Amino acid sequence: MENISQEDYLTAIFRNLDDVGEVKPNLLAEKLEISNAAVTDMLKKLSRDGFIDYKKYKSIKLTTDGESYAKNILRRHRIWEVFLYKTLGMSWDKIHDEAEKLEHSSSDELINLLEEFLDYPEVDPHGYPIPDKKGKIKDSKSVIAITELNKNESAKVVRVNDDVKNLLTYLTKIGINLGREIKIKDKLEFDGSILIKINGNDVNLSKKVASNIFVEKIK
Amino acid sequence: MENISQEDYLTAIFRNLDDVGEVKPNLLAEKLEISNAAVTDMLKKLSRDGFIDYKKYKSIKLTTDGESYAKNILRRHRIWEVFLYKTLGMSWDKIHDEAEKLEHSSSDELINLLEEFLDYPEVDPHGYPIPDKKGKIKDSKSVIAITELNKNESAKVVRVNDDVKNLLTYLTKIGINLGREIKIKDKLEFDGSILIKINGNDVNLSKKVASNIFVEKIK
DNA sequence: TTATAATTTTAAGTGCGCTTAAATCTATTA
DNA sequence: TAATAGATTTAAGCGCACTTAAAATTATAA
Question: Does at least one atom of strand C sit less than 7 Å from the CB of A25?
């Protein structure tokens, strides 16, 4: 395909699929920060090219082709992130944007060589699994959002959403990174915010933030 | 600037400057494999943006800005080439095209980190010097094209032009790579071709090929 | 259920980087 | 020097990826 924009749409679609595997154009427009009209335009092209199932005024689905394409770009993205973080020591909150550019500019051969050099990492620095050459993604059933935890439960942070603006910078500030243990001190009904204990400190997380931090329960 | 095309034009201009620091549009069109009309179009934009000095029907010069921009892209290109070749073991004849894509998709910060990781290489895998952060390029006065050697002179291959289609693949086939010693056996007048001895074999190089292989004399 | 709000699409228009064809300018050479 | 070849520019047009504004459709809530 060799088209940066189409690649961006496909990954945005894949990243934002709902529980039945669909996305609405409006959400895409928000995520990609472009107008709804532009989205409509591109959906026609993606549909024409066989990457999505699309009918006027309906939600979008990826075709088999579209899904494997999207996963291949995610693979590229995540492998680059590992390289930038582990090999070059680039900071947590910068690697996503940098990888976003590189993912469109690297051959499969390069990605495979990089993967080998990095010794076949399983997750990227934000905890997302790296699809293998065939597009297979290790599933992580036990991974849940902080919002799903109950009062007094303890858990370990295993993933943070790298696709939300400024989230990583904020998390770094309040001392959250992968591997950290947290405990739910309280869940506030009126705004959905959650009070957690981390590193001995009490921190209040808004619902939006909490829903983008993922953990595994500690028994 | 953030514009792939303009970056490609600037490097193409820099790479093809003549002895008085100028290029003709026609040469650019050939190198970039596009029409002359497209070149004219872009020259207007590059001029508008202050990267080149351009007057209708005249040759093109780089401005100070244009030159430092071009050198920065060359820097990115060559550092990526070192990484692809040395770290990942990608083959000699593939790294140029791969780096051509990466050079447009990497921040200065990334390039600086890469340079550090690679321990500040001075030349790329084809023997071209790597501009430093300030755009300074080590000059290599003693480097000359094979065509400048006389009969019976010996020399060491120190650079090959990576910007000529299929040249590297061809050179690999006939056993030429950096560090190799050659000796001029004969220079043929009628077509400018040159007979050299390399690895114990006699090889005839066309004028075009010979003019793109660079050496340092051995006394 | 119907008014209103939100979403989505269409329409018209823009800048970009290209194309081909024709016009214009410059260089070569007879 | 005048004809011609070659280089360059202009003109018109195209697909891309966007925009805003208006129209059409769907969802929501009174």
Answer: yes
